[in-house]
Design brief:
A hairpin with a 4-residue loop joins β2 and β3. This protein has 348 residues and is an alpha+beta fold. It has 13 helices and 14 strands. 37% of the residues lie in helices and 20% in strands.
Length: 348
């Protein structure tokens, strides 16, 4: 097929139903920024919210890459943030296991009080254990929900994924609005649909500015003028802006509303005690967050895929392992995440 035709078809699909919202780190950033006396006053409310949001990940004893369980009060841990679109339209169609729209893996180092997070492009061509073949990584959630997604990401990075947080776009909009907006850099003029799929409802001009929830969502989702990698970088910058706003004094006065906004739209396998342990990361008011992206190249076959670069992937694996304080794991072969034969691809 002609590449120009492929590009045209892909662009049409991008503007139709594809969404990759910024659901990332919302529940954790509230806890990272919520230390101090006032936050202690809302422990009971937080405990109720987390209890209502708890959902087992389907793994009996946690990650198979851990010999023992982890305790985030003393151990370095990892969290996978899964963004899904649980819109009224999809609920009406009984789509319980949607394609994941956003995946970000975060590792947290207890001693350094630091966080590294890597965006995983939704079109990344990887092996999905639940399916038994390679396809786009976002198919893992559609196939086997959270459990299949965790296993796929563990196989990709060869590290244990201890926890997950699954959240939908409603929480993102609500939290940004509760923060009274966030200040970010808009790279170029854009027209983007809103959360109700109204075309060109959001118009943004280039430059640093304060955005409300709908506007921030538009910035996080767009890739009409660049690509998925650049969008991932924008999302990471938006996360930083949210964290910076969340550690402000004024935000602490609204911490209850913020937590409720997240709790209504998330599920997690973390207990309240485990989530509470992350408060120490933000106690200094200067959280060290390093953002990583995965290099790769466009691949055209029956569909568009993002072919991860083997050398870059190996480098990112090592960075995350060292940040988690892990020594060695039996690394998978590079062939597991290399496109060998386009005839083995599966369509959406």
């Amino acid at each position: 097929m002609n590449k120009d035709k492929n590009t045209s078809r892909l662009n049409k699909r991008k503007t139709k139903k594809r969404r990759k919202y910024l659901y990332i780190l919302l529940p954790i950033l509230l806890l990272l920024g919520g230390g101090g006396t006032y936050f202690a006053m809302v422990w009971n409310q937080a405990q109720d919210i987390v209890a209502d949001s708890y959902e087992d990940d389907g793994r009996e004893n946690g990650s198979e890459l851990r010999d023992d369980g982890v305790d985030p009060t003393v151990d370095d841990v990892s969290i996978l943030f899964i963004g899904v679109d649980q819109s009224e339209k999809r609920e009406a169609n009984n789509e319980s296991n949607e394609l994941s729209d956003a995946l970000i893996l975060a590792t947290l180092n207890k001693e350094d009080k630091s966080v590294k997070m890597v965006s995983i492009p939704r079109d990344s061509y990887v092996y999905i254990p639940d399916l038994g073949y390679k396809t786009k990584i976002n198919h893992a959630h559609a196939s086997g929900g959270v459990k299949a997604t965790l296993e796929t990401v563990e196989g990709l990075f060869d590290i244990p994924v201890d926890y997950y947080v699954k959240i939908n776009f409603n929480a993102f909009i609500d939290v940004v609005n509760e923060l009274n907006g966030i200040t970010v850099e808009v790279p170029y003029e854009m027209y983007e649909q809103d959360s109700k799929d109204n075309a060109n409802a959001i118009h943004l001009l280039p430059g640093e500015q304060s955005l409300n929830g709908e506007e921030a969502l538009a910035l996080a989702r767009t890739r009409k003028q660049d690509n998925d990698i650049e969008r991932g970088k924008r999302q990471q910058e938006i996360i930083k802006a949210m964290v910076n706003k969340a550690v402000s004094f004024n935000t602490l006065l609204n911490i209850g509303d913020l937590m409720q906004a997240v709790g209504d739209n998330m599920s997690t396998n973390m207990s309240f005690k485990e989530i509470k342990s992350f408060v120490s990361y933000g106690s200094t008011g200067n959280l060290d967050i390093e953002t990583l992206s995965l290099k790769g190249s466009d691949l055209w076959a029956d569909l568009y895929y993002y072919q991860l670069n083997d050398e870059d992937l190996a480098e990112k694996r090592q960075i995350l392992k060292e940040h988690l304080g892990l020594s060695t794991f039996s690394s998978q072969t590079d062939d597991d995440n290399t496109l060998e034969d386009t005839t083995s691809m599966r369509t959406e």
